[in-house]
Amino acid sequence: MTKIIITENQNGCYHALPASLIKEIAISSFAKYVSRIPYFAEWPKNLIEQIVLLLVEEVYMPNDIVVEASLSSDGLIIVDVGVLAVYPASDDDVIYLIDGDYFGEISLVTTEVSATPSVVALTASKVLFLDKLAFRRLMRGHPQLFFAMKEIINKINN
Questions:
Q1: How far apart are CA 8 and CA 43, in angstroms?
Q2: Sequence-ordered alpha helix ranges (H) in the chain
Q3: Mean pLDDT of the residues in the chain
Q4: Which helix or strand (DSSP H or E) is residue 76 part of?
Q5: Radius of gyration from C-alpha coordinates of the chain
Q6: Do residues 99 and 79 touch, judged by C-beta distance below 8 A?
Q7: What mean pLDDT comes out for the span 117-121?
Q8: Of 42, 113, 130, 140, whose CB neighbour count within 10 A is largest?
Q9: Which intervals hold domain Cyclic nucleotide-binding (predicted)?
Q10: Which residue, 39, 79, 42, 74, is CA-closest to 59?
Q11: CB 52 within 8 A of CB 70
């Protein structure tokens, strides 16, 4: 993982690639994660690709706090590489997240502030972050899909 990031940041060839090729690399690398999330599984391919292009890569070192307890989430987080530990406030059971796991999807469809558990990187990790405001701007053109997703998430969480 680190070698890829170093290559992307320091290799002049990567920066010289056409924007369309860099876009295709992102789509081929991350579309599988987005399309595996049940809420997005039946969505059109072009919409999945637009969501992928909104993803922001974030890198965390071991013991870095990914999400601090009791703060509301600002979007969906997908684990690309690494192991994260979720420490729920009310439960002693630690949950581990690995490549392809995700959390924070409720924040995409609600404005309610909900407390989140602490999430800490156990290994060097790269996550993909989907900002809820960027997602909502995109979904203005797809209100039926947005409200269907909201309904499913509300049923699961109530």
A1: 30
A2: 2-10, 12-16, 19-36, 45-54, 106-109, 132-139, 143-157
A3: 85
A4: strand 75-81
A5: 16
A6: yes
A7: 89
A8: 130
A9: 39-139
A10: 79
A11: no
